[in-house]
Amino acid sequence: MATTPTLDVFILTFNAAKRQISIPAFARHLYNAFGQNASDLPELVVISLQEMAPIAQAFIGSYMLSPYFQRYESAVNLAATKFASKQDPQNRSKDSPYTLVSTRNVGMTGIMLFARNPTAVEGLQAAEVGFGAGDMANKGAVGIRMHYRKENGGGSSSASTELTFVSAHLAAMEWNLDKRNKNWESIVSGLVFEDPKKFVERPPVPSAIQDTDDSDIHQTLLEQVPSEKALHDISIYKPGSHLFVAGDLNYRISKSSPAADSKFPDFDPESPNYFTHFLDRDQLTMEKAAGRTLHGLTEAPIKFPPTYKLVLSPKAEPDGESELIGVDEDGTDEVEWSWALHRWPGWCDRILFLDLPWWTRGNTGDERMKVTAYNAMPAVKSSDHRAVFLRLEVPMLEPDSLLPPDSVYEMELSADRDKLVDPRIKLPFPIDFQSWEHRVYVKKWESTIGWSMLISQSKQAVMVFVTVLLVGLGTWWYRSR
Predict the structure, then answer these.
(1) Can you tell me the distance from the alpha carbon of 117 to that of 88, in angstroms, rounded to the nearest whole number?
(2) pLDDT digits over 139-150, tens only?
(3) What is the pTM of this model?
């Protein structure tokens, strides 16, 4: 059996705490991450961001977010350039190793896609859903779907595969477990890559029912039923696509805040409070096993400490306004920190993936995702979270080879099965047909709120606004005389 080619993918998730990063410090941490169990740069880099900018700029979007995205782009290419030059000192290129193929955001949650070979990326699609206050995107998820095509040396097509990346920020606070699960339901039902309504637009039922026999009515009603397969294909669980979910998923290790005498995780392997002992209390692991969230997804073993909530030592605290953090930092790597005593430390920042389905193994052998590294980067001055990265080799399987045959549907949906149904067979939650229309409506409010907040936060902006208002009123009064 021929060996299936693979795609080297690096995914990083980071809650930026609404601040800009220090490019030199972040680049050094990325450089070290690129080198974990690997000697080459990954072919794709995906960065999932939460609280990537202050809420006003995030709600306005567009050029307001460019300075935030640009700093990550600079850090990625700075790290990659250093890595490539060290691997091959004789062949230093002036070009950036990575091309930023796409940036997307839904409010404060963003996603960035970098490629070594941007021409290999085809058919890019995007989707978004908000589930914060009033369904606005102070919390939400944004997704990118794409085809990646590898060519042989002679130019003939060798392999292609489809990938779906989701960046998410779920509800915070220990006691909000049910809300986090509800947020995941919103992602499954509302993060869709095409408008679901177009799959249910059918000719209306004839009003003159009395002139139509029963068989005609039955047929017309059948025609109004949406294509279940088409709806499945626009969801995150499209059967022919590899799926990756990264973000501040906010699952904690308790439903309540810690008491004054609570024991916190430490770093001594001989201690009864060594951090790995707290993994048994992880909400995400328990909720996923119970079939209430992240259905069907796999996570590599966690061997790093909790990534939230960090309290920086006074000398590590950044100075200046929050939106300018990182601009003048010296890039110092070492950051001293401790656990915040009013929050349980938790593995909030996670990356999961949908492994190859069991029904493909007869054709591809025992092909699976091969995890190269799953770890947390060191703390940085600008955030109370640590970034988490996953690097893995993704089998380059054509979308059709991932599709389940009819016999699999029958087996997975049989009544006597006690296992959870694979989400590529049956969605855990139905598609929300109002999702696209509702998101368009809410985005208008976000823009208005964003500009209002930005104006109210700036004395200069308030003066400009008042001046424009007075000039407008004066012009109106003069013309109405």
Answers:
(1) 19
(2) 999 999 999 998
(3) 0.88
